Amino acid sequence: MNAVLDWNETFLQAIRVRGGAPGPIARVGAILHIAMHDAIVAIAPTHAPYLEGLNGAGTENPEAAVHRAAHTVLSTLYPEQSAVFDAQLTQREGALPAPGQQRQSVLAGRRIGTSSALAILADRRGDGHDDATPYRPGTAPGAWRPANPSIEPATPNWGRVRPFSLGGQAQENWLATFRPPLPAGAPDVASLLASPEYATQVNEVKDKGRFNSTSRTTEETEIAHFWANDLDGTYKPPGHLFTMSRVLATDEGLDLAATARLFALVAIVMADAAVVAWDAKYATELDLWRPDTAIRLAGLVNNPAVVPDPLWQPLSVDYGGARFSPPFPAYISGHATFSAAHARMMANYFGTDEKNFQLGTDDPFAAGVKRSYSRFSEAGEENGLSRIYLGVHFRWDADEARPVASRLADHIYDTLLTES
Known about the structure:
single chain; Vanadium-containing Chloroperoxidase, domain 1; 16 helices; 2 strands
């Protein structure tokens, strides 16, 4: 087995146990995979590390380095699961060679791995992930507010987290590079809500995303649930995309170093995609309400082409049968930003968008479903569209996310972990 894939699978299981919002999950994923990557590169410098300064002799055992790097990160960031990580470390280290000089190689690899983990953990201290500044939902037409007032907004300050690809830029300049414009070319929110484009967007999801829609096809319903993974107990959207990377790494027979670079790149792009999406959701003039609120409160908007339906509910459903929308604004879609960024990074890494692969899902309402794709972008676009069929997003939430995500992926691929 590949040690990077082993610990990635451990991480996916840890997500299922921990749950939570996508941004914090993606941040942990980036720290984890950078630690493993930089440990390997310190031993065999085939391409640039994320952090400079860690240098090995070239004789250290790379699997031992990966095991200690991953264990240190996961035990630090998910301490409540440390007993599980300890057991897996013992099992995996027990499979490493022990006698003679090999024993010294293993011990040296452990030191490299621990040092790599401690370096990236130190680098991410004070990155803003724990910003608890209160967010007050809006009351104006179009402004997001939770459909269930007892639900707190999820990670409203995530757009302030320091990006992994910030480099020497000021954060506001970095954000401005990737911040999407108001959709439909609208000059302001009031004009947007009064526009025919807004009516088209609302009426599409009102029809297609309704829980009992008669126009949504069987396949569209399958797609909606296949990509959802909104519920705790699943590996969430970042985990689904990591799983796609796992499939390709296995199919392509990537070695340890190549796997580490691929997973570090996709982890970084997903972590920064969360910053970009949450900045657009909460820190711009458009904290856009979700379709359920837009349809139920359509009477607040000066747009006669949108008719209120106070009983409208989305297809999205929890384990107990309650209909819901994720507890944060709609524009832009986190799913679409993650998936488009991931798709572009996969295409950059493999040098082509065209790859045939099959993928499963963790979502309980699509149990056993597998879908096949011939392009990374095909999967990414389907992921974005799935949110319309699920009834939780408008089409432009995905459409405006794609170019932003592609620019982000290109920026990261061109500037980080570059090949020697």
